[in-house]
Amino acid sequence: MIRKSLATMPLLDRMGATLIRSKEEDDRQFVTALGRGLTLLAAFEHQDQLSHQQLCQMTELPKATVTRLIYTLTTLGFLRTTIHGQYELGSSAVRLSATAWSRHDVVAFAEPLLRQFAAQNEVSVNLATEIEGEMRYLACCRSPARLSVNLQVGSAVPVARTAIGRAFYAASLPTRQAVISSHLQNNLSDTDYSHAQTALNQSAEYYKKYSYTLSDGEFSSDILAVAVGVFDVATGQYAYSLNASVPSANWQSDDYAAVIVPKLQELAERIGNGA
Description:
Layout: H1 2-7, H2 11-24, H3 32-42, H4 52-59, H5 63-75, E1 79-81, E2 87-89, H6 91-102, H7 105-121, E3 124-131, E4 134-141, E5 156-158, H8 163-171, H9 174-187, H10 190-210, E6 213-216, E7 223-232, E8 237-247, H11 253-273
Antiparallel strand pairs: 1-2, 3-4, 3-8, 4-5, 6-7, 7-8
């Protein structure tokens, strides 16, 4: 009964309940310090950024303990400090989550559909999500045609210079867009950030009008790509984006979009619905 009730709890509540139970049962095998550190990470399940005070309130841990945990987790790369002095998940946590995403049910469901799509339309097609201002590839199926850039699962590409990144940004809620912009601002020079944000804003307007994004030689000079967002009905948000690319010498961008975008949108809907 206890295990069943814990499984239905939000992650942070579940972690807190486990900490209390281990103390009550005097479980000598349970490492309390580790449990507290993981509890602190669990606070970010539904929050992108949190302050020190918020972490204390949410975890109900002493202020001094939270300070030490933040220092340790930041040193190990599981947390990072934002330009506003708050905290967010760092690269170590992101790498672990990226590995989990690559084995996610949605990805497993999508892979045969991507293979079929690539073969039928003679394109390279990829599924990705945004992590710390980059698009991380979760599933890839190559075109029979040779492309200068052949990306694999785990590869990362820029958000602002790729169709797949622009589509993800354009389809995301304003709160997620703000987080993406914050990542870019932290990782790019002022000039590069300004160019990236301009490109993303323009792409968002383009997406509102045409329901897809385009990259014609901007990421790689000989690649033409279109992309759409993927709405995940399980999470109720645009959790992925999907692109289809070909050698730019083979197509005019408008002709390519007219042919492939409706098919790509249908594929995105199937993946998002899991059907």
